[in-house]
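Section 4.2 – Deliverable D4.2 (structural model, holo form)

The reporting period included a commitment to supply a predicted holo structure for the target in complex with PMV. Inputs used:
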Amino acid sequence: MTTARAHTNIALIKYWGKLDEALIIPQNSSLSLTLDHFYTDTTVTFDENLTADSFYLDKKLVPRQRTSRTTHVLDIVRAQSGEKRFALVKSTNHVPTSAGLASSASGFAALAAAATKAAGLNLDGKSLSRIARRGSGSATRSIFGGFVEWHQGHSDETSYAEPIQEVIDWDICMLTVIVEKKRKKISSRAGMNSSVRTSPYYDSWLSSTGKDLTEIKQAISNKDLVQLGEISERNAMKMHALTLSASPSFTYFNGDSIKIMDYVHSLRAKGIPCYYTMDAGPNVKIICRQSDVPRIISELSPDFSSDQLILAKPGSGVTYLD
Ligand code: PMV
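Output (structure tokens):
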């Protein structure tokens, strides 16, 4: 029995589109920040008395038809380790209740770490990130803390994550504004596929995102929040432009998302460096300095209550709890 903890991550340079659907090889490299506030604890026990894998999420048994990706990751671990038994998997998501934030990144990273160790494998971070990738692309990056790059690669061996700056000794954080608690209507998988197939701008996304990645690594090494924020915001909006330009068009924005963007623009006009990013849902993450958070919260307060605002700082990579 092994228990592992992994934190979620938010991409600053987004992964949007798959080259290989089965192996989850992305169309572009991406880069993220791992966050301390949101994480998943997962315990894996291989047991000869089990006749199938069974998966409990927050103490509730998940129906078999919704566990195919978990079983897929466990099958990969069994094939690598020679473990023959089925597994009991118990996960607890420490993401504020119904926050509407994706937990697949922390979930599959914790699963990869706990399952490999329970099966007797002792893998390095790079190999773990390749296994996490097979559950959910973004999980690749949650193996490591701080700023993490997922190298696109072209095969299972060459598509993996690598830490860029694990210990962050400068002032950067993310303020998440929760505007929607329900599950997303269009999954990231469906949204990516539609964008790749139908957006006339997809090729421009690929070429310009490579440039964004090079520039953001420079900003990280310079510890330059303004440059990092500007690149992150424009990269996120280019990703969302792919959904708007898909056919049929779709969007992850809602009215509140736009309202928050307006607030961020006016905060910047008042001299506060803050920037927005969004993923496959309407919640907005504001990249800013922790020292500016009280001012940002007070500006947002006419429209957003304090229970909609969650502050997250840079978080660490996978750890074992036993
Ligand atoms: O790994 P998935 O299927 O949850 O997709 C993640 C997609 C984005 O969150 C929008 C971007 C990213 O790189 O995390």
